[in-house]
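Subgroup meeting minutes
Present: P.N., E.W., G.H.
Scribe: E.W.

1. P.N. recapped why we're keeping a running log of single-chain structure predictions: easier to compare across weeks, and new members can see raw inputs and outputs side by side.
2. G.H. added today's entry (749 aa).
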Amino acid sequence: MQWRDPSTWLVPFCFSDTFKFAFRVAISLTLAFLIPMAMGWSQPSTAATTVMLIATTGSRRESLAKGTLRVLGTIAGGIIGLCLVGAFAQDRMFYMLSVSIAITIVFYLRSAYQKDPTLFMLTGVMIMMMYNGGDAEGAFLYGVERTFMTIFGVVVYTLVGVFLFPPRVEQNLHKLAGELVASQQALFEHISQPVSDQVQIPVGEDSPEALLPVAPPDAGEGSQAEDEQATVTVADLSKAVYAAQQALEGRYQTLSAECSEISAYKKEWDGTIALFSQITNLLMFAAKDHSRAGGHPAEFIQDYAGIRDELIALFEALPDAWHSREAFPPEAIPQLAVDKQKLEGESHLYRGEAISSCYLFGALRERLVQLQSCISSINSLTGKVGFSLPLLAEKPAFIWWDAENAKTAIKVFVIYWATGLFWIYANPPGGYNFVIFGTIFVSILSFMPMHPAALFVLFTLGFVVSVPAYVFLLPELTLGAELGAFIFAYTFVAFYALKGPVTIFFLLGLFTMGIDNSMVYHFGITLTIVSLFYLVVGVVVVAHFFPFSSKAEHLVMVMRERFFRHVSAIVWLVQQPELNGWQRLSMRWHVTVAKTALAKLTLWSSKVDGDLFPGATPSELGEYASQCDLVFHHLLTLQQAESKLEVSPLVHTARQQHRDKVIPFLVEYLAGDPKVSHLVPADVQHDYQELEARLDQFFTEQEWQKNTNSDIAYFYIFLNLKKNLFESLLACYRANEKVAWDVLTHKRF
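Output recorded in log:
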């Protein structure tokens, strides 16, 4: 049936996403050059530069709403820039001071903004472009022309991106949701199967566990290595669930506000994502390697095998719900029946674990039924869900107080003044354009994972291609179509072969040719432009090390310390019996900064040169970052459960009488606290086992009748979440000990 979908066979719709993106950008940049030239407008390169900047720094999905905001940002920047020119037309130093302050603020907002970064980037660019090199007389017309051509470039790129190869947003979300369902099902099957079957889980091609990345065994290890790698653990499955959940939520948050396919059913989509998150949390509440009381739900839940099969069937039915054209309300769910006669003769611990297991199984079944109903209502024309949908926590538009955002703003201020003074006293090629491009590229490439030498190589490669074309090809072109074909081919190759902001430096070769209606073929002009951009590349390389270092090994050490410093603060806040308003605000801030630091730690861990730093290779650092990710997600699950745990009298009393000192001690060691310089894993495990024994004894001494089933369930959820966090911290400790951290502090030369 694939022939019904042209995207699977019709050229060029069947090509890769990279091909489609490069094709869209090449069409946009070609039109941005040719249309102004055909209309006789000046400065067509301004529109083309705008397309280049948006394509290299923005997302691959375009929308009319996003394009409108870019136009408004461009107009705002133009107005601010013209006002500054008018206010300080006779005093260059005061003008530069006002501009430096304005762009520092704007580029800080650009770094902190979590949606489309090109919005504030265009504002900052327009503020600097209004100056016209100090010519106050023609500044207004010059600024209006630049603003108009920038807006034209935004409009061209937006329209091409919206109507040519538009991304299939819903299908992408369906795929991510399917991966999440498969990983959730794998975890549920693992933690719910009878004890006799938990020795080993075969990983088949069609099993959900096959989603987990498993490295191939070394040759010659034989079947023993295959058997070991065919066994998965709760930690492995938890990582897969957390990764899939994060991928779905992150993708949805970036699309929900700008995509019409989603906004029409935003309430249902929000409920779907929130229910997925609740199911993940329920699975983490129940995730454990062994029973605390030695029992298993199969022993006390009646028809346990049938209920387990029912839950697995609900997981398997979720992908089909996306294709339903009718919304069906959730069915009534009978309560789980337990073997009361067996429970009466068991200990408090056994009965408590039985109650918590029944609560989790019942809640999981309820959420799966609700999720199935919610998904089916998305594509339904008239159907609505028959229950109150959970609210989805909105992602903040800005991340304030991030250190790298502030450092980028300081870099912009310093580089603007450094290039400005160099322009005033040395008069470099390009004049004030040297200040503009140097400041823009430093802001875009600040704290980007790149090698400085690669920038020179890319620009030189673009120069090697553009100069022969300037000498031998451009003079022979007589038709606009021929010029368009050349621009298209050059741009397509750049965006197909390269990725991200570094594409700019190869694409700069196109702008060294000075393409315009009235071409003046003079090699001295080309060398002037090339010299300008070589100076700009040199500025970017200097900014890579000054005033703040962007070396991978340095940033790994910084992010490691920052992550565990904030994790330590979260652990301290979680242990408080009740949080006041300031502490709740502090909790949100620590969680946000820790999440951002973790993402940067993961990124920069893969960029460390293992040849220069033996003992701290990307693979070892990557494993460490992966364990940190698991620690953070377990801690986040515990923090999100606090709203229910803090109202449980059992949990409240247990925290007061048996304060946990083991987990804070372990976190402080990983944070590099000088007071905790030595750690023995066996001693830490023994201390935690003693803490668990005291908590078990505490529960045994409680009067059974005074506690509700919900309180008992929350108490066991609390114990299980802490256990998962402790085990993930131990795994992180083991990964930490494998890395030679002292090596990363050594100088390269």
